[in-house]
Amino acid sequence: MRDYPDAIMMFAAGFGTRMKHLTQTQPKPMVPVAGRPLIDHALDLARGISPARIVANLHYLPDQLDAHLRAQDVKTVIETPEILDTGGGLRNALPLLGAGPVFTMNSDALWAGPNPLAMLQAAWDPARMEALLMTVPLENTLGHGGTGDFTRAPDGRLQRGPGQVYGGIQIIKTDLLADIEAEKFSLNLLWDMMLQRETLFGLPYTGRWCDVGHPGGIPLAESLLAGADV
What we know:
The protein is α/β, with parallel strands linked by helices.
C-alpha cells in the first residue's frame, strides 16, 4: 500500500439543489463559469500535480457529464440506483482509485492562488495524519455565508468549530471505510472517527476561495478569475 496519494477522487454525483434552475437540465459540474464547465476548473488543478488517475462519481443526469469526462481521460463510476453521499461514493470508487491515501475534490469551488493540491501534497505526513484538509480562513472566502467548520491547533490538528472553512479538497486514508456498515454515508462520519484518534489535520489556504455551489457564487468566481479585487 502506498503512503502518498497518486489518485484523485472528484465528487460530481450531487443533485445541485442550491443551484436551483441552473441544474434542471444539467448536472452542477457542467454549469458554465467564465465560459467553461465548473468541473473543468477543478480538472485544471488536478492536472497541475500530474496524478496517476482521476476518478469521478456520477448520479444526477450523468450522461452528458460522463461523456465530457471520458473525453478528458477521467474514469467515471455511476452510482445507481441511489446516490451514496461522499463517504459511500469514495468507498464505491476504491477499485478504480487503488489502495492507500487519495485526494478528494469537490467541483463546486474556485481557487485563486497556489494550487491547493500541491500544497497538501507538500505538507502530507502519513506517519501522523489520517486526513489533511485544505481549510480556508473566513477572511479568504467569497460566497460563503457560514462561520466555518473547524478550529485549528498550532500543530495543525482540527476540531469542530468556527473560523476555518473546509474548502472541499483533502488527502485522506481510506482504511477506516471498511469499518462503516452503512452503504450511504458522509465523509463527516470518517472525520469524526479521526477526530477521536487525533489524526485529522488542516492546512490553511493562502489564496482566495469562492463557493460556487449557488447562483450568486458564479459572478463572484468570475470576478476572482478575472483578477478583480472582490
